Every structure is written in C-alpha cells, then in structure tokens.
Amino acid sequence: MPKRIALDYDDRELRIVVANCNGSKVQVTDAQVIPIPENGSVSEKLRAYITSEGLQKTETLVTIGRGKAELRELQLPPVPDDELPDMVRFQAIRSFASASERAIVDFLVTRRTNDNNTLIAAAVSPGDMDRVRELCKTSDLLPKRIALRPLSAASLYLRGQKTPPICVLIDLLNDDAEIVIARDGKVIFVRTVRLPSEARHRSGAIASELHRTMVACGETSTPGRIVVWGTESVHAGDIAAIKSTISCEDVQAVNPFDLVSLQIDRSALPEHIGRLAPLVGLLASDETAPETLIDFLNPRKKPEEEPDRVRRILMIAGPIAAVFLAGFFIYRQFAQWDRKIANATNEVNLLLPSAKAAEESIERTETIDQFLDGDVNWLDEIRRLAEKAPPSDKMIVRNISGTASIRGGGGTLRIVGAVTEPSVIDELEEALRDPNHGVVGKGSQEQKGQDTYAWTFTESVMISGETIRNTRYQRMAERIAEAESQAADEPSTATEAPAAEQSPSEAAPSEAQDSEDQEAEQQPSTPEQPSNENATDTAEVQA
C-alpha cells in the first residue's frame, strides 16, 4: 500500500500522521506531536523526523489553519458547475479583504436551491503557499494537497457516521478552537476562535464561543449532537461546560483513530489526539472524498474538455483527403478554366469601349441635368400660386420675384402682398407647402391706415433642383410615350425618329432650349442684370 504523510504545524508544535492508504482503507503507522521550542525551526524538526524514518520522496498532505486563509460565505445565482469556479474567483477578489489577482481561491458548495448556490469560499496568499512548498522541499517531500484544516476533520466524521440534522464538531488546538457546523451531513459554517491561555478558563470560553457561533450562522435550534475531537479523560470539563451552556444532551468526545485502522499501540498516541483529527481526516478523504475538501494546491477550476482522439484524427485526415480529391478535379479542369478565362477576357475587352462611351455619355448628361436643374418654369409656379392662393377679397399680391440657383439647382419664388387678417397667411402657407415645395415666411406686419388689406407679408417658396429634374424627366417620359403611340398608329408615315425617342442626353438640350424660350418670354418683366460672371450665380425673374 502506498505510504502518505499528513502534517500540520503552528508556532508551538509540529503534528504528523503517517499511514498506508489504498482507496478507502487507511492504516495509521505513526502519529507524532513534536514540540517546537521558542525560536525553534519547524523545518529542522520536520527534516530530522523524515530523515530518521526514511520517508523522503513521500507524498505529503498538508493542512493549514483558519488563520492563514480568509473565509467567506457566498451566495451566487444558480449556474452550471463549469461556470462556478470563475464566478467564485471573481466574487472572492471583490469581497475578500486580502484576496488579489494572484490569490489561490477554492470553495465548497454547501447548499443548492433553485434561487441560489450557497458556498464557503477560502483564499490564501501565494506567499503562504510558497512557504508550505519550501517546507516540503527542504525535507524532500512531495506535496500532494494543501487543504483547509477544519473541513478535513469534518470530512472524517460526516462521511462515516449517521448524524442528526444539526451537528457541531469542535477541534481544540493549543490556543484556538475550530468550530464546524453541519446540516444534514454537509458543512454550512466554519469559525475559528481564540481561547484563553489559562486552562481553567478554557471550558467556559469554548461553551460561550459555541453559542456565539450558532447565532452567527443563523441556527436558533439546539444542535442534535456536539462532537469534541479527543478523549473523554482529556475533555471531560469541556463536555460538561458545553452541556450546561448549550442544553445539548448528546455531547461526546470522539477519538479520530477509532474511525481508521491503527497499526501502532494506542498507548504510543499523544495525549491530545484530537489535534490530529484533521490529519486523519485528510488521509481518509484524499482519494475517496476530495470533493469535501478545500484544497489550495488543486483548487476547483473550469473543467477542460478532453481531446477526442478519433475526432482529431478525422479532423486531420479529412482535410488532407479533401485536398487530394480537390486537387485531382482541379487538375482535370485546368484547361476548361483557362478557356473560360480567355473568353471572359475577350468579352471584357469588347465591352470596355462601350462602357467608356457610356460613362462619358452619363457625365455629359449629368452636366446638362445640373444646368437644367436651375431652369425653373416660373409660369408653372405662378399658375400654381394663383390656383392655391386665397381669393382676392382676402389677399392681394403686390410683387412676385423668382430667383434661380444655377449652381445648386432649383429656385425661390418670393411673394410680397397683403391680407385682411394674419390667419390668411397661415392658409396661404398651408396651401403652397407640399413635398416638393418648402415655404418660409418672414412674418406679418400691420399697416396703419389700411382698411381692408391691413397686414403685409413676405413669403418664400423654395423649389429644389431634384424636384425640377424629376418633373423634367416625367414630362420627357410622357412625350416619349406619346410619340411611341403616334408611331404605332401611323407606321408608314414615320420616316424619322421623333424627338421623344431621343435619349435623355439628347433631349436635355431641347428641354434647355424650351426653358430659354420661356425665360425670354418672361425677360421683359426682369430688371436688366450686369454681365459679370463673378457677380452672381443666380437669375432673377420678377412679375
């Protein structure tokens, strides 16, 4: 059977248990409590023992006390088990006072519900872990686990005994008492308390701290059983004090070596054998119940997916086969692809002159369109004003002027007039405004002395270049449709292509000529403009 060493230490003593372990079977072969003198070295005492017993290169299980680890009870939302380690570590770094990004964090789930997961999380600094590793290294030991001491002792008892709903386990050390509360066989609370140095005050302090611990964990009912690790002869006073304070009848001392096989004489065991309970529990739980421990050397992590060898082979062989198969077909079709490429190249070369000519035609057409976008048909706009304006008994028009924007296209029709009341102006604006015409007014002003048309106004009606272009192309389409209809009715007399069949680029100059003719008809009412190219980029028409 493989041999393992479990060790624990503090400033005053070194505790060691050696056992042969095979699965759930533990046979203790040695148990030692070695005092550490003042200013003494734990490393020297351990090295001397290991050398004398010839236990070099032995797997070692180490327990560390509550004082070296920071514990917190956390409540987290229900998540899958593989996501729990990352969530616990993130919450521990935020909640723990001494935890950092480098801290080693492990946890033990104590309760699961549909609403949350309750767990005990513990964090230890990398420096403390390095000191434990160095201690093992100096004695030529192989550290396998570094576990939290209170949970190791609790695991020994809770796994092998039938316990009541609430059970309390107390491990009495030199100056400390480690109290573990379990509900339904699972640890729910861990607390370490400091004990008085004088022996006559220890029993009362233990009972008082036990009562405070029950209140701290929220258990108001009396524990069904209280276990003190050790023997009746050593802890008789402690048991009596606990019974009188907690009112629990089932208070018993439990010898940890009664729960495992013992291959040494019982008389050779130390007097305070209860202090060795965490080591015995760690040996018993190492292989059979590691999930009940908080192990800082092997903290719980997100499980890594084991590689599927068959899948990996298929993933490697599949692409290789596909490459060879694809290469075979590509080789066969190279010639056909070359012919297709050559044909496509010839087609492209044949289409390039036509594409270039089309681009030039589009550019010319766009230049003409930009010029014609500033050719506003003012007669249409004046006719629209006459149709939509309120009647003459409400409004009169005193001045109409049109300004065309040659660069941006479109124009602005400026209307100056008078109305009988301001509401007529709103009526006018509402009538003239549509998706193609924007209306902006400069307000109204009352003219004193006027009886009927007492309110003057100035309104600007904006026509965009896009609107003018859409209207022009709509009329061109109507003319083309009309010409095609006439050609269909008189096929014999159609010796020339009608003007409506011309392309937009050819029809645009005709449209420009029509606009120039209209502008020439309106020109008498327009003030003469100076011929200066840089003077303005707009043309104004007044009526």
TrEMBL record:
Name the UniProt key words of this record, in alphabetical order.
Membrane, Transmembrane, Transmembrane helix
Q: Where is the composition biased (Polar residues)?
A: 524-543
Comp. bias intervals (Low complexity): 488-512
Q: Where is this region: Disordered?
A: 481-543
Residue ranges crossing the lipid bilayer per the database entry: 313-331
Domain of life of the organism in this record?
Bacteria
PANTHER family per record: CELL DIVISION PROTEIN FTSA-RELATED, ETHANOLAMINE UTILIZATION PROTEIN EUTJ
Q: In its UniProt entry, what is this protein called? A: Competence protein A
What organism is listed for this UniProt entry?
Stieleria magnilauensis
